[in-house]
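User: Design a sequence. Structure:
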C-alpha cells in the first residue's frame, strides 16, 4: 500500500468532493468531464511529472452535490485523503482519464470557495492539517491496562512485554477481521448470484457467475495484504458495503487497532443483517473501483 506519512503543519491543496471516502492505498480511477475539474487536471499536468504536488484532496460529501452553493462545512465531512496522480491522459473531447492512489489523511481547516477574480482557480481548495497514524502509540498502550498489577505497590510489567503482548493481540484481531471479511464477501456473493439467477429468483446462478468472480477477486486482494494490519483495515473499509457514515468513521480513525475493532463490529452487524433480512447489496465492484459523477 502507498500511504506515505507527511509532517505536521498545514497546507492549501485542491479539493475534489466525492460521494464516498477515499482510503490510503486504494486505487481511484476517474473520468473527468466537468470544466472546473478539467482545469484542475490541466493544472496538475502542467507540474513536473515527479512533483509531490501532483495530488488533490478527496473529501466525502455529507449533503448535496453543489457544494459551493451551501456552507462547505455543512456540505463536506472534515476528514479526507489525498489522491496522488499516477496516470493522466487527455481525451479528444477535452476531458481526462485519471488513475490516482489514496495517500495521506487530512483534516479540513478551511474551504476556499472560488471567487469572481479571473485569476482564481474555478475548483475548491482547502487549508488542511495532516493526520498521522498512531501505530507506535497504540502498540505500546494496546493491552497495558490488563498487564499492570492491581495493587498500587506492585511493579508494572516491563514495556517490552507490554509491546509484545499488544502486537500479539493485534495479530489476533487482524486474523479475526480477515476471516469475518471473507465470510462477508462469500455471503454477499452468494446472495448476488442467487438474485441474478435465470428465473430472477433467489436460487439461480452458476459457478461462473459474477458473485463467484467478486469473491475470487476479493480473496486475491486479501492475499495481497497478508501480514499488513493497516493495509487490511483500509481494504475492508473501502470494499465493504457500508454507509457513508460508517466509512467516514473508519477514515477518521487514526489507530489501526481501533479501526479493525470497529470493522469487526460492523462486519458482524452486516452479516447478521444479511442472514436475517436476506437483502442483496449492490455489486462489490461498485465500491472496489469507485467512479465519480463529477
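Assistant: Done.
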Amino acid at each position: 500500500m502507498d500511504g506515505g506519512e507527511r509532517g505536521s503543519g498545514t497546507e492549501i491543496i485542491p479539493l475534489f468532493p466525492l460521494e464516498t471516502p477515499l482510503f490510503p492505498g486504494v486505487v481511484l480511477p476517474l473520468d473527468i468531464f466537468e470544466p472546473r475539474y478539467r482545469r484542475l487536471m490541466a493544472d496538475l499536468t502542467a507540474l513536473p511529472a515527479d512533483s509531490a504536488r501532483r495530488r488533490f484532496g478527496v473529501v466525502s460529501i455529507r449533503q448535496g452535490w453543489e457544494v459551493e452553493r451551501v456552507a462547505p462545512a455543512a456540505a463536506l465531512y472534515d476528514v479526507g485523503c489525498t489522491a496522488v496522480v499516477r496516470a493522466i491522459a487527455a481525451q479528444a473531447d477535452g476531458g481526462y482519464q485519471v488513475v490516482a492512489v489514496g495517500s495521506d489523511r487530512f483534516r479540513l481547516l478551511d474551504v476556499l470557495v472560488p471567487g469572481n477574480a479571473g485569476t482564481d482557480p474555478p475548483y475548491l481548495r482547502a487549508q488542511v492539517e495532516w493526520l498521522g497514524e498512531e501505530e507506535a502509540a497504540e502498540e505500546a498502550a494496546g493491552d497495558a491496562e490488563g498487564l499492570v498489577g492491581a495493587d498500587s505497590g506492585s511493579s508494572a510489567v516491563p514495556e517490552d512485554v507490554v509491546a509484545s503482548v499488544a502486537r500479539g493481540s493485534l495479530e489476533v484481531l487482524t486474523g479475526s477481521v480477515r476471516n469475518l471479511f471473507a465470510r462477508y464477501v462469500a455471503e454477499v456473493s452468494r446472495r448476488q448470484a442467487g438474485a441474478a439467477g435465470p428465473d430472477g429468483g433467489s436460487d439461480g446462478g452458476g459457478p461462473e457467475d459474477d458473485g463467484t468472480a467478486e469473491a475470487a477477486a476479493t480473496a486475491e486482494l486479501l492475499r495481497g495484504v497478508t501480514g499488513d494490519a493497516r493495509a487490511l483495515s483500509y481494504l475492508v473499509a473501502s470494499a465493504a458495503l457500508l454507509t457513508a457514515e460508517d466509512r467516514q468513521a473508519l477514515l477518521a480513525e487514526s489507530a489501526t487497532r481501533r479501526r479493525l475493532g470497529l470493522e469487526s463490529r460492523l462486519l458482524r452487524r452486516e452479516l447478521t443483517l444479511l442472514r436475517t433480512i436476506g437483502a442483496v447489496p449492490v455489486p462489490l465492484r461498485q465500491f472496489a473501483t469507485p467512479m465519480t459523477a463529477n
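The mean pLDDT is 78. The longest strand covers residues 96-112.
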